[in-house]
Amino acid sequence: MGAIQTSxxxxxxxxxxxxxxxAAQPRETVERTSVAALSxxxxxxxxxxxxxxxxxxxxxxxxxxxxxGREHEAFDERLEWDRALAAAGWTCLGWPVEHGGRAASVxxxxxxxxxxxxxxAPARVSHVGEELLGPTLLAFGxxxxxxxxxxxxxxxxxxxCQGYSEPGAGSDLAxxxxxARLDGDHWSIxxxxxxxxxAHVADWCFAVCRTEPGSxxxxxxxxxxxxxxQPGIEVRPIVQLTGTSEFNEVFFDDARTEAGLVVxxxxxxxxxxxxxxxxxxxxxxxxxxxxFARELAAIEEMARESGALDDPLLAxxxxxxxxxxxxxxxxxxxxxxxxxxxxxxASVGKLLWADWHRGxxxxxxxxxxxxxxxxxxxxxxxxxxxxxxxxxxxIYGGSNEVQRNIISERVLGLPRExxx
Length: 420
What we know:
By secondary structure, the chain is an alpha+beta fold. The chain folds into 3 domains: 36-125, Acyl-CoA dehydrogenase/oxidase, N-terminal domain (Butyryl-Coa Dehydrogenase, subunit A, domain 1, Orthogonal Bundle), CATH 1.10.540; 161-268, Butyryl-CoA Dehydrogenase, subunit A, domain 2, CATH 2.40.110; 281-411, Up-down Bundle (Butyryl-CoA Dehydrogenase, subunit A, domain 3). 44% of the residues lie in helices and 12% in strands. The protein contains 12 helices and 8 strands. The strands form 2 sheets. It has a 4-stranded mixed β-sheet with strand order 1-4-5-8. Strands 2-3-7-6 form a 4-stranded antiparallel β-sheet, with no helix packed on it. It starts with 14 loop residues before the first helix and ends in a 9-residue tail after the last helix. InterPro entries: Acyl-CoA_Oxase/DH_mid-dom, Acyl-CoA_Oxase/DH_mid-dom_sf, AcylCo_DH-like_C, AcylCo_DH/oxidase_C, AcylCoA_DH/ox_N, AcylCoA_DH/ox_N_sf, AcylCoA_DH/oxidase_NM_dom_sf, Mycobact_Acyl-CoA_DH.
């Protein structure tokens, strides 16, 4: 591998496509066989062994790179890492074998995500396709759609982004106004999406559009699969407080996609979109919590070395953060055991981790003290970046306010909030 790039270079609009097209000889791929017969200990040993070998070898410089607020770090190298995972059979573990997965149980998927996080492996660049769209196509897609798109997700040869939020519909998905009309054998799409993660490197977007003129709220929406590399789409990066720009605005000006690339029935996009959101708040959150635990341990060690931990009030904050992390895990494990969710448990989980992680950023700044207010040579350090980016945790993926509405209306049965 070449030198690791940690600047915005390597994440241009065509970054994913250029890497896919210019990739060297494809890696040897293993036969995708079921892992269901393996015991948990056998499976965990296989995962650890492969990760240790790779992260102590060819990919050793990638440990800990990437993730929210840091997607610019070594993007091309992390893309190659994802393809190495795919070649070794470590992508799409929970998918059925007939669709290229390995039929891993929920318990095995949890083991994989936790071992991955414990190894401090780099953040995945293909998670939107693998963890969101893939399961959605398995649940709602047609055979033709699965045959067309699942192989590219599994091999990481096509990258995806999610077209949900809009300037007038941030966390209120039912208020989207981006329209799509059927024009012969294609949909013609017009409108704007915002806060679209990694749109600048994506090959495809799954977008919720209003396909029934005059419809309101949840009715008349459709879930479309849209190619990004076309004249009718413009992507503009959004520069964040951290100085990075992994979020984007996406403008559709008579953008086109085939008539058959609607997932579920036309007009039934709300149900499909909710299925995607429930997947988003699933098993992978347990790996996320391992990364949270690593951040908390580093903050505690920093507080101990600086003497800040001698302050009983700050020590109590550290203890509360530790307890809160255990609550996150307990809720996630309980949710995994449930067979159905009306959105309530997923919303509770989002509220819990978003508030906790934002509080962790504030705790880091409290430990740093006055030194945390100064950016050395104009560059943010790890903890300053954590503090600034976690301000967004309670907004993206569904704001806290919207999550509370879901819980109050769908779980507690309270009256709906008045809407215009």
